Amino acid sequence: MQRLLYPLAVSVLAVAVQAQDTPEKLAADAGCGACHHAEEPRMGPSWQAIAERYKDQEGAAAELQEKMRTVSKGAWGEAPMPPVTPDQLTDDQLSSVIDWILNR
């Protein structure tokens, strides 16, 4: 019986850990929410506005990744967006956040 419960417990734990790393949580943990909101503009555009601007644009994910990794200024006004460093979000995590934004 114990042999059956151990794999089940590991599977439940793995699902719980994955659920904690949703793109929304990753963005929040990286501090993106200080300037961005789901639907309301703040210092930066809303996630919805970003999705609408880049909707169906070829290469949008790569363009956003480049903008997010470097200091971005002028795309949404004069306030610069500081870079999102690999310490804040790995490349895979950043890709996940960008996909989440673009698929709103």
Query: Which structural class best describes the helix and strand composition?
Result: mainly alpha
The portion of residues forming beta strands comes to under 5%
The termini sit apart by 44 Å
Q: CATH topology, what is it called?
A: Cytochrome Bc1 Complex, Chain D, domain 2
Mean pLDDT: 87
Task: Kindly provide the radius of gyration, computed on alpha-carbon positions and rounded to a whole number of angstroms.
Answer: 17 Å
- CATH architecture, please? Orthogonal Bundle
Shape: globular
Give the biggest beta sheet: none
Walkthrough of the structure:
Mean pLDDT is 87; it is low at 12-16. It contains five helices and no strands. It is globular. With 104 residues, it is an all-alpha fold. It has a single domain (23-102), classed as Cytochrome c-like domain (Cytochrome Bc1 Complex, Chain D, domain 2), CATH 1.10.760. It has helices at residues 2-20, 23-29, 47-54, 60-69, 91-102.
Which secondary structure elements does this structure contain, and how are they paired or packed?
Blueprint (H helix, E strand, L loop, with lengths): L1 H19 L2 H7 L17 H8 L5 H10 L21 H12 L2
Please give a handful of descriptors for the protein shown.
Cytochrome Bc1 Complex, Chain D, domain 2
In a few lines, what is going on in this structure?
Residues 1-19 form the signal peptide. Helix content is 54%, strand content 0%. The chain is mainly alpha-helical.
